[in-house]
Task: inverse folding
DNA sequence: GCCGTTTTCGGCCCGACTGTTTTCAGTCG
């Protein structure tokens, strides 16, 4: 059993305990343990083995004697006693109820005990019949909101978040790659196109082991994948199965000769492929998942690589993120495709947290992790006081924290000047690492650029926008910071007009540099959340306030829409991770994909600039070169 | 259930908002 499953079972048990009105601190232990396990890089299965050091599990913070026993039980039997006991009392489907807005553990327990409800369907029926009105604290308003919530839930629950699908794709890839003669494994479909959510997972596999006469053995290997929950189909060169979370996976093993055609076909989108096939016919060709053929004599024109296929159709190569039939084919024909932004273009990350509020790492740790990822500057933006749950900072703490942030920044600069410290260590390591041996190239190995400027940490804060549009820290405090990110954390029952007015007032505060997005797990689905942001984005463009594209996968589907809008209106855009751990700095990659899907280039994004230019551009007069250049277009 | 202790028991992030109340429990971040 792998870490993700172990963590999920513990987390589910925590939820069941909540419904069961268990000790809140015990519940938190289970959640903490689940979180700790998810962050482990080694598989706990090996640490829990019979012959492993019995102390190994206990070394993980958050895992004690009891939890270690649970983990060993799960590895051995797939479950553990407490979980079984709770599942006897409640059906597993009751966990779904917790995902509905307004439904917390107490309310779930109430409908279960009073009406015997443990499924979304049954809850919906009860709500429609008006049965809920007889229960304490539940009125018409609650019922209406719940029904709306169920509707939204149904819309989204059949798809999986891109990072979840990506995680499974990685694990399956790792397993399949062990088979000799497998060379390439590529996720296709909406995952490759960078969609925020995916319906199912398509993996395309090729290599000598996938040639028609020998493919059976490789198919057998794929079908023996341990995490298969239910095998749906097993054909000559295709294996379909579901995982225990119901995600469907299709693995196709293809000969190298037709791999490009297959990759193109299964990457989609459907509309892009339709347009492409129409274009093929106009050129006297026909495109299928096997090859691009000449119509008159069925001779293969291209099939090995996608590049060949696009070229044969008279098109520049179209990056997967753009394949939505929204102008990319015309642009490829005119050689007018934009050069999309890449991960390496981003130099700074301006939104992250430390242990001062709800982050898991220190200032120094975040900085070193950012240096390791090749960034040149970051901003530490812990929460302000209104978010009490995160240990949000009041004015005094904010300034004291800023002082410490600048001290660490100075330390790093001094180490840099002395030719030591994390920046130089990384440089030395890069020099020692032999250049990647993969593509045999005649080019000389690229020179590793010597770091020329010290890493910089900006002192900032993530302030909350209060219902009246003011911020929850004083102007004096905000004026003492390098960067202020303003986000809305509550008040989602306000009308759209109220929300807009609230954000607009904050945008006009002279201390706000970046407008973050409204946040919240359950509120993301709520209707007021799909704000018509046009007036807000217009105000940002006028005031020179940058608009944040939050790279967190959980925020993704909010941003896609507003990103295009922001660009059209000439907003300055920054992409930030909002990291709460060093590992989450890697989320930048998800943010970049979203930017690419919105056709953005490096020049459209403010934090691709070196730190001094960035800071100059961030000032509240929209006079930065970036801004001027965009308006000339 | 975990953790750490002047080590085996006591502490463990908390404040705002909502819908239903006439004083507050439950949800949320």
Result:
């Amino acid at each position: 059993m792998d870490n993700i499953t172990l963590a999920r079972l513990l987390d589910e048990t925590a939820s069941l305990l909540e419904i069961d009105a268990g000790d809140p601190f015990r519940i938190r232990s289970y959640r903490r343990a689940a979180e700790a396990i998810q962050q482990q890089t080694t598989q706990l299965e090996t640490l829990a083995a019979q012959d492993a050091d019995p102390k190994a599990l206990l070394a993980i913070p958050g895992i004690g004697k009891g939890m270690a026993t649970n983990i060993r039980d799960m590895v051995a039997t797939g479950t553990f006693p407490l979980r079984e006991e709770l599942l006897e009392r409640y059906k597993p489907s009751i966990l779904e109820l917790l995902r509905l807005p307004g439904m917390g553990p107490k309310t779930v327990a109430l409908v279960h005990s009073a009406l015997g409800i443990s499924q979304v369907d049954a809850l919906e029926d009860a709500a429609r019949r008006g049965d809920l009105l007889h229960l304490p604290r539940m009125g018409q308003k609650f019922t209406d909101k719940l029904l709306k919530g169920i509707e939204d839930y149904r819309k989204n629950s059949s798809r999986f978040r891109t990072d979840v699908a990506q995680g499974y794709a990685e694990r399956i890839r790792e397993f399949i790659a062990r088979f000799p003669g497998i060379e390439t494994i590529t996720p296709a479909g909406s995952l490759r196109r960078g969609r925020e959510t995916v319906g199912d997972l398509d993996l395309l596999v090729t290599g000598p082991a996938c040639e028609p006469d020998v493919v059976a053995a490789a198919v057998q290997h794929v079908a023996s994948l341990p995490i298969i929950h239910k095998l749906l189909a097993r054909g000559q060169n295709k294996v379909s199965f579901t995982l225990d979370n119901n995600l469907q996976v299709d693995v196709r093993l293809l000969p190298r000769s037709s791999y490009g055609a297959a990759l193109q076909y299964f990457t989609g989108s459907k509309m892009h492929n339709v347009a492409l096939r129409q274009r093929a016919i106009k050129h006297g060709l026909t495109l299928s998942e096997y090859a691009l053929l000449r119509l008159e004599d069925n001779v293969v024109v291209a099939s090995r690589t996608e590049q060949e296929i696009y070229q044969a159709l008279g098109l520049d190569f179209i990056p997967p993120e753009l394949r939505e039939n929204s102008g990319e084919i015309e642009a490829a024909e005119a050689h007018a495709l934009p050069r999309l932004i890449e991960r390496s273009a981003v130099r700074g990350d301006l939104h992250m947290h430390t242990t001062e509020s709800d982050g898991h790492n220190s200032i120094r740790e975040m900085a070193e992790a950012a240096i390791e990822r090749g960034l040149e500057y970051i901003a530490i933006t812990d929460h302000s006081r209104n978010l009490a749950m995160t240990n949000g900072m009041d004015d005094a703490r904010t300034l004291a924290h800023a002082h410490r942030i600048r001290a660490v920044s100075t330390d790093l600069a001094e180490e840099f000047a002395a030719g030591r410290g994390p920046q130089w260590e990384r440089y030395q390591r890069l020099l020692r690492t032999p250049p990647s041996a993969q593509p045999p190239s005649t080019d000389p190995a690229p020179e590793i650029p010597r770091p020329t400027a010290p890493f910089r940490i900006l002192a900032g804060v993530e302030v909350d926008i209060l219902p009246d549009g003011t911020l929850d820290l004083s102007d004096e405090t905000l004026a003492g910071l390098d960067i202020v990110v303003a986000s809305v954390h509550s008040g989602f029952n306000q009308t759209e007009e109220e929300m807009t007015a609230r954000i607009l007032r904050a945008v006009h505060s002279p201390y706000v540099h970046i407008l973050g997005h409204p946040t919240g797990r359950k509120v993301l689905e709520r209707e007021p959340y799909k704000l018509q942001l046009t007036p807000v984005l217009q105000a940002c463009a006028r005031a020179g306030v940058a608009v944040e594209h939050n790279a967190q996968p959980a925020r993704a589907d909010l941003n896609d829409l507003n990103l295009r809008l922001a660009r059209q209106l000439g907003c300055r855009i920054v992409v930030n991770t909002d990291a709460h751990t060093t590992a989450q700095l890697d989320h930048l990659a998800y943010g970049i994909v979203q930017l690419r899907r919105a056709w953005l280039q490096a020049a459209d994004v403010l934090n691709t600039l070196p730190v001094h230019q960035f800071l100059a551009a961030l000032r509240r007069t929209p006079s930065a070169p970036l801004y001027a250049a965009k308006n000339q277009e």
The mean pLDDT of chain A is 88.
